[in-house]
Amino acid sequence: MAGDWIITGGRPLQGRVEVPAAKNSVLPLLAAALLCSGPVRLQNVPRLTDVEDCLALLRGVGCTAGWQGAALVVQGQPMRTDLAPEAAGRMRASILFCAPLLARLGRVNTVLPGGCRIGARPIDLHLQGLAQMGVRQLPAAPGQLTLYAPAGLRGAEICLSFPSVGATETLLLAAATAQGQTVLHGAAKEPEIADLAAFLNACGGCVEGAGTDTIRVQGKRCLAGCTFAPVADRIIASTLACAVAAAGGRVELAGCAPGLYAPLLEILEQMGCTVERARDAAAISRFGALRGAGNVHTAPYPGLATDAAPLLAAVMLCAQGESSLQDRVFEHRFACADGFAALGANVRVAERTLYVQPAGVLHGAKLTAPDLRGGAALVIAALAARGSSRLGGVEFVRRGYADLDRLLAGLGAQIWQEIPARRGLAKKTPMKKQFCLAIGAKK
Predict the structure, then answer these.
(1) Main localization of the protein (predicted)?
(2) Rounded to two decimals, what is the model's pTM?
(3) Which CATH architecture does the domain made up of 23-228 adopt?
(4) Which one of 48, 164, 212, 279 is separated from 291 by 20 to 30 angstroms, measured CA to CA?
(5) Which residues belong to CATH 3.65.10.10 in the chain?
(6) Catalytic residue among 116, 203, 242, 336
(7) Is 318 marked active-site?
(8) pLDDT in tens, 108-127
(9) Taking the domain 5-19+233-429, which CATH number applies?
């Protein structure tokens, strides 16, 4: 089990980071690999626990899947319809593997998907859309899900009542090899949706309109494999931008177009940061005081990403003025508020909104990551605090960040992992003063 992170704040960040491929793109791409008759090679993929769980799902249905350096290679015809329950139960993205198995084998058995407890995350939109494409839900034990496509998948005209990213991805995967045309209205517009469509087209699919609210898919009998570089991770870029805003300093984020996380960068500028933009890079710096952000809210793309909400909230703790941040997607996005309070912040949560009042200098505290992005937010806040903090629950953070502690240490942060040793002792994992993360992203 991973040990706690020890973070001593007050050190500005300096350096350059190559932003890796996006977790939120890699996971649906791994599901899409089930549709392909040839090998799929995904480049520059970070080694995350969610990625490893996806590999377990692929191997569990009979595919070969593994690492070749920083690339992932998947090959093989799925032969089994049961998704590995432990891996499926740990992450939300496991639901994405259902449509490809229905397309290839006509049936899938799984447990209901897991993931962070940030609010209601129903799969009703997934199931409603699949039902229109000929999928039936069979009786199953509590917590189990069995889907069956007795006549195969067929195209349909589907209207989503909410632009759900997951439902849009599920229906794209179902439509790619379905019989006939599928038209999806009210689709999500996130960059990861466009990335999935680009992958399917590179494999021989026919997807038009991804990135708009209407997507048209002409089903193909089969898809080939391809080599593909997923889009850069705008949430990792957002995390590092917020870390600089909270701790001070200047960091260049390379390989990730600033337009992918423009709302966050604009808010940081309003709070007193300087942002230098290029086509595929941005440099964020903060050397003076931060102003309050006023009233901010998340929204589906191109609005402020819900995943960025806790990260931005951590910056608000360091401002001299008032801020409020409402998450309009998930009702329990701010479970990190207790950790903020432990650091000395003046915060309160009412329904979906976090309110922040100026509270002076933050101080070190004992913290526990409540979820993936909440854990990253506590790291950011600890970087700005006076004294040392101990963060437990880092396994949540590792679901979406590969060696975040080492990355931050390479930028000048004082952060190290305490690994439990035998006889109740603890061992410090040393960090080099200069550590360069060089896992590429799509250019």
Answers:
(1) cytoplasm
(2) 0.92
(3) Alpha-beta prism (3.65)
(4) 279
(5) 5-19+233-429, 23-228
(6) 116
(7) no
(8) 999 988 655 554 457 999 99
(9) 3.65.10.10
